[in-house]
Specification:
By secondary structure, the protein is an alpha/beta fold. The protein contains ten helices and ten strands. Strand 7 and strand 8 form a beta hairpin. Helix 1 packs across helix 10. The protein is globular. Bound molecules: NADP nicotinamide-adenine-dinucleotide phosphate (NAP).
């Protein structure tokens, strides 16, 4: 009889050996998860080894627009269709290609695990999805960008936007090029993933060129703060709709000491709400979330939900 114990062991094929990828490589040895290949941009298709089962880990840079973005969605879809599970911290393909990827995973009878794309060190997707399945989630309000939270706090304290931006980059809270954070793309991408995890296949959102853009300005932040700090870029998710706007978000107040916090307020069908928050980003926290998905997947008792969308 062929039980799970007789199947070949899992091994990781890591794509994108950057900050998160390297942090993940450090976490794997104590868990006995082997690394089959580490692939940079130039390594197109590593050789396969029939003695192991591959897990494709996507820790590559996010591409939201253009040919490279499309090419990467196609690459992931092909991998899934071939039956290889994907574990990812890269928001972009999920935000622009949810339908194609979930269909590919179904065709390949495999999974796409994405806990690391939203919330980093805080299992926002897992908890929210569970709440939706058991109690029904009718709305989520979420502050999902550590960079925007930092800017809102510093401008509320009196800094100019430009000073706050420079500080955020110098201290590593923001990327050297924070444009995808500043115009809300990163937050909306996370909101799209959260939306689809809850409401697909009935409602599927896609991040398009015409996506809602956030327009940050000092006056807007300070005016909003008068309604009560902290001000946050709040993504709002309801079935069939994702938006983003500056708002007063009191739920974020207890987490202001955390460097890059993620906070979600989940409104249940009953009218009650539930709030979840914690560290939302950073290479180590994100690598930890990838490891969590890998452990679910490689568990000899079988995969749990792991943020899987299919
Ligand atoms: N850092 C965080 O706190 C954090 C949090 C949540 C999610 N994420 C997501 O995690 C992913 C990795 O982030 P990171 O901070 O590690 O970024 P990073 O340091 O810039 O690393 C990205 C790596 O991906 C490589 N790469 C780009 N395109 C590739 C391709 N087609 N095939 C193989 N490798 C490719 C890059 O190579 P080159 O150097 O040649 O470009 C680089 O080594 C991103 O999608 C990011 O949005 C990061």
């Amino acid at each position: 009889m062929n039980g799970p114990a007789s199947r070949p062991p899992w091994s990781v094929e890591l794509h994108g050996p950057g900050r998160v990828g390297r942090a993940l490589l450090d976490l794997l040895p104590p868990h006995g998860i082997a690394v089959a290949a580490v692939c940079g941009r130039a390594d197109d298709r590593p050789e396969t080894d029939p003695t192991t089962r591959r897990i494709f880990v996507d820790a590559t840079s996010p591409r939201y627009d253009g040919a490279e973005a499309e090419r990467w969605v196609t690459r992931l879809a092909t991998v899934l269709t071939e039956g290889t599970p994907v574990v990812t911290c890269n928001k972009a393909p999920l935000a622009i290609g949810w339908d194609r990827l979930s269909l590919a995973a179904r065709r390949g009878r495999t999974t796409l695990s994405c806990s690391a794309t939203v919330g980093g060190g805080t299992p926002i997707l897992l908890a929210t999805r569970r709440l939706h399945r058991s109690q029904g989630v009718v709305r989520v309000d979420a502050s999902l960008s550590g960079t925007l939270s930092y800017l809102c706090d510093r401008v509320t304290e009196g800094a100019t936007l430009s000073q706050a931006k420079d500080e955020a980059i110098a201290s590593g809270v923001a990327e050297p090029d924070p444009s995808l954070d500043l115009d809300g793309t990163d937050s909306v991408a996370k909101a799209v993933i959260l939306h689809n995890l809850l409401y697909a296949p009935r409602w599927v959102e896609t991040l398009r060129d015409s996506r809602p853009r956030l327009h940050l300005d000092e006056e807007g932040i300070r005016t909003t703060a008068r309604a009560g700090p902290p001000v946050r870029a709040v993504a709002t998710i309801t079935p069939g709709q994702v938006g983003i706007a500056l708002g007063s978000f009191p739920e974020a107040a207890p987490l202001r000491s955390i460097r890059a916090p993620a906070v979600v307020r989940v409104t249940l069908r009953s009218g009650l709400s539930s709030t979840l928050g914690g560290p939302g980003a950073g290479a180590e926290a994100t690598a930890g979330a990838l490891l969590g998905d890998l452990l679910e997947l490689t568990d000899p008792l079988g995969p749990g939900i792991g943020g899987a969308i299919a």
